[in-house]
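Moderator note: this is an archived Q&A kept for reference. The question asked for a predicted structure of one protein chain; the sequence and the answer are reproduced below.
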Amino acid sequence: MADLTEAEADAGGRWWNADDVADVTEMLAARRSRLWQVTTPADLAVWVFRAPAPSPLDPAPVALDGEWDTGLDEAGREAWALAGWVARTVVPDAAATAGRYWILSHLDDAAPAVLRLTVGVLEILGLYETGEEVWLRSHAAPILSAIEAGAVDPQEWERRGIDVADDRTRTLAEDKVLLTCPDRATARWLLRQPPVIAGLRLLSCWVAAGPYSFEGRYRPEVVARAWQASQLLAGDGLDALTGGGHGFDRPYTGAATTGDQPTQRSFDANAYRAGVGEHDRLCRSLIAHLSRSRLAAGSGLAGVHVDLAWRDVDGHQFIAEVKSVVGGNEVEQLRLGLGQVLEYRHRLAAWGVAVTAVLLVSQCTDPDWAAICANSGVLLLTGEDEAAWPAKLMTAAV
């Protein structure tokens, strides 16, 4: 964290000023806390009034799960995304303090299931996985100050169905408000308002500096799932959905042949290991090829489990499904790979992400497959024809 820029100070001048930052610094400095091992009261006071933006996706507090959306419908994915985005946006030093000063709970025994973000002793956020109703606890001071300055229109909040009530929980009882939104779309609108983010951050800073422990209650897999999902709501443009401008979710790490292996009767362990090795070789070949043009490729995109994803120099987004061809399985792998990359393209399109789809296979002896893929808007590349990749990729960008 750093001092506020002059532009930021000017932007906030209508409803807060330097005295407010100084007051928050003094308030937090009066608290003895292990939180000061990772930050300072002055840095947090500056952060409280910064624009509504999430902390970086990397580093993450725990290992991310590429299959975070397994079993979730669209409403469920959006609910997890919102929960993760709020945690990254309003919890102080969220990556460094997960499990110590805050937790995210998934109450799947409720009907419908509920996600709750708890900081210190307070539930800061609660929402149903199905999409109905979102509630937020906020410090009242920034919101009241913004209303007095005309930076917040209470009538607009009322028209959108946002309920503002005194919060009845005991901690800071006289200083809190409970904000209830009828749906996630309204909550996202509300969370774009800087005074609301300032109120949530101020409350989070205060309660995170308390002597609270979450040992036994912290579930890192829940935080990992929401953290991974949160990139879907990092903003309104393509960059927010595709790794903050990188064009992929995470670096490519390759695959290992250890662990569980297929159990069908025809399973051949040697063939399986050969296929995994060939898949990794193809991925690394494409990554190396792109790096020679100063392009970085990684795995996953907007939570969809693509093999590789990248952007070209003009910002066009690509995804690739990679299939190893070993032991005479060429047709099977081509059919499987084409189906997968079409599925991934469809899922990304649902999030508003337009991509060029690529199918990379070890070899293809049937010349008809290039036309089969092209008819579906998919570019076919083969490992044995790497020299042709630059021209094909250049002409394929959408």
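Archived answer notes: Residues 269-291 form the longest helix (23 residues).
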